[in-house]
Write a structure and sequence with these properties.
10 strands; alpha/beta; 277 residues; 11 helices; single chain
Length: 277
Amino acid sequence: MQTKQAGMARKRIGLALSGGAARGAAHLGVLRVLEREHIPIDVVAGVSAGSVAGALYCAGVPMSEMVNALKDFRWHRIASLTFPWHGLLSFAKLEKYLIKWIGDVWFNDLPKPFAVGATDLLTGSPVTFTVGRVAPLVRASCSIPGLVVPFEYGNYWLVDGGISCNLPTAAARELGAEIVIGVDLLKPYVRKNLGVLGLASTALEILIRESGGGVESADVLIAPALDNRTYTRFSRAMEMIALGEQATEAMLPAIRAAVGEAPDPVTEPSQTGVAEI
């Protein structure tokens, strides 16, 4: 990467990865393009599905193995039925699955600084974790309230981070990022053919997407074209990865402008600010 002035210290770049359930595979497409284009990522913050991708990446799992991990990602491998008192499912399997790929590591063991966002159901407040064991807190960040049993952690009762802050740009800045690239997997889509149910689902997408204000505070926003794509079918991971790649490639001029790299004057006209497709 070339900076505008020789010898200028580059700005620290952070990546904020949103929730999105089975759409989370799109994060790997984003990471694949950033790696290919030698865009350095210094810190990562993730919630829900974004915390899974972020944990794999910050643990140094090679991209090919990350893809293999998601190819093998299925509901029966990450969830089990439980007594329906506080949820229908337990994500204890998800915790074990993640440990299989990264080990039972602590945040300070990771090669790259990482933050996990969750929601404390007792207070309704977002909580960011940068210390402790990684896998249990990723599990907590993915625990959809009403479906998955909350994760008890100290004085917290933790559930899905996307409920209170779906795009953790502030958490990335707290880790030292000066420029934050946000990846938003919940760009709203109106499902008119589903009638009132479709309108309600769109309203829910908007509520979750806007929670925490992360979308507005990203320096560059990558929003893959996931219109009407599934939230539940992990078998479509390769399709999601491809869509993440396409969205990131389209945003490369904006990313390079934000991080201070001179764009190609022929193929990459300069773009600045927050942008999305």
